[in-house]
Amino acid sequence: MEEGANIAVIPVTDAPWRDTQAVFGTRGDPSSCWCQYFKMDNAEWKTASRDTCEPLLKEQVRELSPPPGLIAYLGDEPVGWCAVEPRINYPRLGRGKVVQASPEPVDDPTVWAVTCFVVRVGFRKKGIATTLLAAAAEHARAHGARVLEGYPVDPAQREKISSAELYYGIVSQFTANGFREVARPTPGRALMQLRWTD
After folding, report:
1. pLDDT digit string (tens) for 9-30?
2. N-acetyltransferase domain: from which residue to which, for each copy (predicted)?
3. pLDDT class of 3 with cuts at 50, 70, 90
4. Hey, which end of the chain has fewer CB within 10 Å, N or C?
5. pTM higher than 0.85, yes or no?
6. Nearest-CA neighbor of 152 among 194, 121, 95?
7. CATH code of the domain covering residue 20
8. Residue 186 belongs to what domain range?
9. How does DSSP classify residue 153?
10. What total of structural domains would you count in the chain?
């Protein structure tokens, strides 16, 4: 368990499902995606909805080992989510321009990826996503990751960033956790890596 400023982070498998539901909510992109976008092809995504995506994440939580993400708590309140898995678990991810800039082989199971952050409205700007990222790094390394990648946005390079785009995280949050920028495929998006040698 990672803690920072009274924030505790646990694997989603250790949290009641109702807490995961509370984080994803009933409005906005998280409530319809449930971290399935990078796991579906275009045809599947066109017809996706909460009714299809929530059960898929629930099944992945039940069946995948290690689990596909982490839940953050502020006190007893579930407030955030971070998706972190081996990059090969996200088939759609590899087709993106940012990920294609990675020097790592596309089929390497020791390359992990952080693809999504969700922080509930009312709990933002409290360091929750940064704490989630620190815990994600610990989680990935404990389960055999050699490299952890992230694909954050850079607010300094963009006039406007929608709240929906922030699900990738921001560059400063990754830098604060020891990640190094290895590519800048577009001015507003970076490919960042944390590597372990032992």
Report:
1. 999 999 999 999 999 987 888 8
2. 10-197
3. very low
4. C
5. yes
6. 194
7. 3.40.630.30
8. 2-195
9. B
10. 1
